[in-house]
Amino acid sequence: MQATRHLMTRAGHCLRVRARLALTSHLTTTSLPAAQNMCIREVSMGQAVASQHLIRDSGNQDCLGKASVTMHSAAANSTSTMLQVCWAEGGMDLFPYVWLRDNCQCPSCFHPTTLSRKISMEDLNLDIIPTSIQMANGGEMVEIQWLDGHFSTYSANWLHERAFNKASQDRRDCFRRPPQSFWGSELLESLPRASFPELLEDNVALFTFLQQLEVTGLVVVSDTPCCSGQIHQLSKRVGYLMPTHYGETFTVQNKINANNLAYTSSSLDMHSDQPFLTHVPDIQLLHCITQYHGEGGENVLADSYHAGHILVSQHPDKFHILTTTLVDFYDVGLEDGKEYFALDRKPVISVNHEGNIQQVNFNTMVRDSFFMTSADKVAGWYDALSTFYRILKDPQNHIEYKMNEGDIIVFDNTRVLHGRKGYEMAHGDRHLEGGYWEWDQVRSRRRSLQITAH
Ligand code: OGA
Ligand code: ZN
Ligand code: ZN
Predict the structure, then answer these.
(1) How far apart are the CA of 78 and the centre of ligand 2, in A?
(2) Strand-pair partners of 329
(3) What's the pTM value of the predicted model, to 2 decimals?
(4) Does ligand 1 lie within 6 Å of residue 416's CB atom?
(5) Measuring from atom 3 of ligand 1, which residue has the nearest CA?
(6) Is residue 228 included in any domain, yes or no?
(7) Is residue 306 part of a domain?
(8) Residue 453, pLDDT score
């Protein structure tokens, strides 16, 4: 166990260095052309549905960027605290001296293969000023001689990408996390799809799939071989599976003495998986190996952020209750001969510092009967939860999809709630294999592909 962890850490480190080298070549050449075009489409999709509160205003992002920029002039600004660059293409940006000195790219300040800053905070003079600022290479570079004797050069492209203005910062944000596009029942007409054989072979297809997963939170992968082990195969292209007390992968089938309601043939109300874990699995994969051929077995899927936006616009008080009341979720049982007792506490709707929904924890099956709130708040909380549930159940706000054998539904587990219609065992078996991914790995892979696969 120790050895494995050690090996994994070392392997992780190697990967990191390789990815960073790819980034270097990108940074010294051009900036994300095709990928950024993709961003534009998603931004405008996001803005089309951004009528409700909570959705970050992406503004008029210029995701095109410029392959190459030059400076018209580079000099001290009027207060002599910043570098003022006027671009040959128009526009002006300011770069504070302390930031420039902190980000000197010379090999003694910045390690060229690890791409890490070598300067210590100890050595950083917060009041540093230049003794000279000189444009070079016809405006492609600026050279700065600092008062402490150090000499730095910065390329126009490098500065332009990092400019302290909204367009540049939005572009970077789009690369960090593309804006989400929220949906209701209309998604069924244009269900995002990918092909399993293509994902295994083609990096552009893999990029498109991962990006779509971030934007829509749901992609149906088709043409997967109908045998177990395929989730492992796909995961090898992305990163690692996230293990839980149900294992690295789990088998969803009607089982005798089931330890989870999913392992029966009963219907499952819409839910997010494993809210009793501190780190709720980010992404879920469900591979349909055998589908139930009678009536039933369909999946029900809802974008709970979309439902949350409806809730906040119609009942802000109820939305507030669901974001501020902490709820316990638990899971007790035996899996593979090992006992488990998972228990965690979180609100049903969790919002980030910007007020955007960042996680929905909705699972009636494993919500605890212990409720750490005051008795007078209980009825109001149930009322808020039931309103949220009614919005989710509105036919306009969810889709029904019966997986074909060979489909894998891949979805954001803390955003896209999933359920299942019950089925009669008499009509044959239904067999799924499930697993989880983490966003950090998925996004990291998407970003690397965004740079290298185009
Ligand atoms: C689950 C689950 C859905 C299905 O295993 O958590 O929700 O279609 N399964 O069986
Ligand atoms: Zn330096
Ligand atoms: Zn589930």
Answers:
(1) 25
(2) 344, 367
(3) 0.85
(4) no
(5) 420
(6) yes
(7) yes
(8) 78
Q: Are 409 and 299 in contact (CB under 8 A)?
A: yes
* Ligand sitting nearest the alpha carbon of 253: 1
Range of the domain at 15: 10-177
What's the mean per-residue pLDDT of the chain?
87
Distance 104 CA to ligand 2 centre (A): 5
User: pLDDT value at position 426?
Assistant: 63
Residue 420 Cα to ligand 3 middle (Å)? 8
Residue with tokens 């039933």: 296
Last residue of a domain, one of 177, 200, 216: 177
Which residue is closest in CA terms to ligand 1's atom 2?
Answer: 262
Task: Note the pLDDT tens digit of each residue in 146-198.
Answer: 999 999 999 999 999 999 999 999 999 999 999 999 999 999 999 999 999 99
CATH number at residue 341: 3.60.130.10
Contact (CB, 8 A) for 419 and 270: yes
Does the C-beta of 268 come closer than 6 Å to ligand 1? yes
pLDDT in tens, 167-178: 999 999 999 999
Out of 144, 177, 210, a domain closes at 177
Question: The CATH number of the domain where 90 resides is what?
Answer: 3.30.2020.30
144-151 long-range Cβ contacts below 8 angstroms, 24+ apart: 144/83, 144/100, 146/101, 150/101, 150/104, 150/109, 151/106
Residues 145 and 262 occupy one common structural domain: no
Confidence (pLDDT) at 427: 64
Does some domain include residue 314?
A: yes
- CA angle 436/441/442 to nearest 5° reads 75
| Contacts for 271 with CB less than 8 Å, ≥ 6 apart | 362, 363, 364, 365, 417, 418, 419
**pLDDT of 421 strictly over 50:** yes
Q: Is 418 in the pocket of ligand 1 (CB under 6 A)?
A: yes
Report how many domains make up the chain: 2
pLDDT at residue 31 in the model: 28
Q: Specify if 4 maps to a domain.
A: no
